[in-house]
Amino acid sequence: MEKIKEILLKSFDAKLTPQEQKLLDEALQNSAELRQEKRELEQMRNLLTGQEASFESGFADRVMDRLQTEKVTSSKTIEMYSIFKRVAMVGIAAIIALLITIYYIDGSLTLDAVLGISGYSPDGAELSVINLQDYENIIQP
Amino acid sequence: MSRESMPYSEDKALVEAVRSGDNTAFRQIVLKYEKLIAGVVKGMIGEDGADDVGQETFIRFYRSIDQYKGESGLGTYLVRIAVNLTLNEIKKRKNRQWSSLDDSTKVNGETTDEYSRMESAEMIEKAMTKLEPEFRSVVVLRIMQGYSTKETAEILQIPLGTVLSRLARGQEKLREILKQLGYRHGEG
Predict the structure, then answer these.
(1) Domain span at A101
(2) In this structure, is residue A69 part of a structural domain?
(3) Contacts for B161 with CB less than 8 Å, ≥ 6 apart
(4) What is the model's pTM?
(5) Phi-psi bin for A74: left (phi > 0), alpha (psi -120 to 50), beta?
(6) Mean pLDDT on A48-56
(7) Number of domain units in chain A
(8) Average pLDDT score, chain B
(9) Is pLDDT larger for residue B71 or for residue B165?
(10) Model-level ipTM above the cut of 0.85
């Protein structure tokens, strides 16, 4: 009986094999209980199919209001924002890495060190000017 | 049935318009599919809270509109979002639902007559909320919304065989629940 019930339920939603169809037809012919069950199932399905549903009027307005109040952004905007965020993060990481390297090389993070001129001094610059003058004296006796 | 009556290309055009920032097109989508979504959500959770779930369905769609590739119809895609959101809502309500199930034991007692006077729509709503969510979703999509078993399987992302077995068990259970609620077959 369970097997027949299974076939009966299946018959509403799937095509039965010829063998299943034959079994069901025979069982329906011989069993008043099964016929009653089939009727009940049909009634129930009709009851379910006939259900009309709708939201209260103004549903679309409520959705549009939510869109405005929550300032919902589409995935494209979110995507652009996340790309910008990623680029910014990479930039920040590169700057931090650069500062660490400078500190490691120069032992400080002064403006000179950052600009790469901490090794030069004004005295050194004067010296190089004097050396240049000596050179000019040599070539112009 | 109220499914995807407009041509598919029209939906595509609406989606494209929404993508380029046209909110009027989004409103058109809401107007077109609100009945379908109402049928699914209300079929699964009844009136209570259905409006919020319905709104959330469209808002989620708007947020993730670029993920919609058009592989399935727009209605089917929206129904998938609605089913998932409704299943989440059912999970949230689980405790409340259990307490309401306790109330249902009364139907075998003196309150049966009261239930038998219920309008069929109310009775269906009540019966559906007592059905386990996995059965509820297949019954709503296949029987109430008229999707084919194949479409139901696609929407719920489960095998066809599972849809058929859930349908069979779901109908049996629903018939029992309706009997408990006082529904007399042949009168309804």
Answers:
(1) 75-139
(2) no
(3) none
(4) 0.67
(5) beta
(6) 85
(7) 2
(8) 83
(9) B165
(10) no
Domain of B89, in residue numbers:
8-180
**Nearest residue, CB atoms, B172 vs list A9, A43, A70:** A9
- Is there a contact between B23 and A60 if contact means CB atoms under 8 Å apart? no
On chain B, the residues whose CB falls within 8 A of the CB of A67 are 23, 26, 59, 62
| CA atoms of B140 and B92, how far apart (whole Å) | 20
Q: Which residue would you say has higher pLDDT here, B153 or B129?
A: B153
Residues A25 and A81 in one domain: no
Domain assignment of residue A26, yes or no? yes
Q: What is the CATH number for B111? A: 1.10.1740.10
Residue A110 has pLDDT above 90, yes or no: no
Shortest Cα distance from A10 to chain B (angstroms)?
7
Residue B185 within any structural domain of the chain: no
- What pLDDT is attached to residue A119? 66
Are A133 and A81 within one domain? yes
The count of domains in chain B is 1
Domain membership of residue B187 (yes or no) is: no
pLDDT over 70, % of chain B: 80
Domain membership of residue B35 (yes or no) is yes
B22-52 tens-digit pLDDT: 999 999 999 999 999 999 999 999 888 899 9
In angstroms, the separation between the Cα of residue B97 and the nearest Cα of chain A is 21
Residues B49 and B86 sit within 8 Å (Cβ to Cβ): no
Residue bearing tokens 């034959």? A22
Residue entry with tokens 């008043």: A32
| Residue A55 counted as domain residue | no
Going by pLDDT thresholds of 50, 70 and 90, the confidence category of residue A84 is confident
